[in-house]
Specification:
Blueprint: E1 19-20, E2 28-36, E3 43-51, E4 64-68, E5 77-83, E6 88-90, E7 92-99, E8 109-112, E9 124-126, E10 131-132, E11 137-140, H1 150-157, H2 161-166
Parallel strand pairs: 2-10, 2-11
Antiparallel strand pairs: 1-10, 2-5, 3-4, 3-7, 6-9, 7-8
Length: about 170
């Protein structure tokens, strides 16, 4: 499987990082994306998506808790902010892309948040009225060329095998 999804909703724990004061009344997750490798020429949109739980079935892919689609295509890095509307622990913070003329699908996943030493995506806790910062993600475009990217394997490892199999990557 070369990538994964962000799901149609975009179209229509403990965190090692401290809580930063956000704009008054804002709650969410913030961090920095760093892009490694050459951007694909066909890239039209890149987004950060947050899920309370990693998907167990295809329908779960539509259960986004928040997203940021403001990533500039071709950027070397991007400071993102995903607004979150309720307290909780969010277990899957991902980066996904879609090519021009395409929709978010199983090939969209580029990476996810995981702290060094974690064997699965690292959960991020959000407290209402605060922004959880330092949720940084490195995106290696080599995954789109079939290269082995350890962080990517960790992101897919959070998914049940039958779901990965449905995506053609099992």
């Amino acid at each position: 499987m070369k990538g994964w999804l962000l799901a149609g909703a975009l179209a229509c724990c403990a965190c090692d990082h401290g809580l930063d004061a956000g704009p008054q009344g804002q709650s969410g997750i913030a961090g920095r994306l760093v892009f490694k490798g050459e951007w694909p020429a066909e890239a039209e949109e890149v987004a950060v998506a947050v899920y309370e739980h990693s998907p167990r079935q295809v329908a779960d892919l539509y259960q986004l808790s928040g997203w940021d689609t403001g990533v500039q295509v071709g950027a070397e890095s991007h400071e993102y902010f995903v607004p979150i509307e309720r307290d909780g622990t969010y277990r899957w913070v991902i980066v996904a892309w879609r090519p021009k003329g395409s929709f978010w699908d199983f090939r969209s996943l580029l990476g996810c948040y995981h702290a060094a030493g974690d064997s699965l995506p690292t959960p991020v806790t959000v407290v209402l009225g605060q922004v959880t910062g330092g949720v940084d993600i490195e995106v290696d475009f080599g995954v789109l060329r079939g290269e082995e990217v350890p962080g990517y394997a960790l992101c897919v490892g959070a998914l049940p095998g039958e779901l990965v199999g449905q995506a053609g990557g099992g």
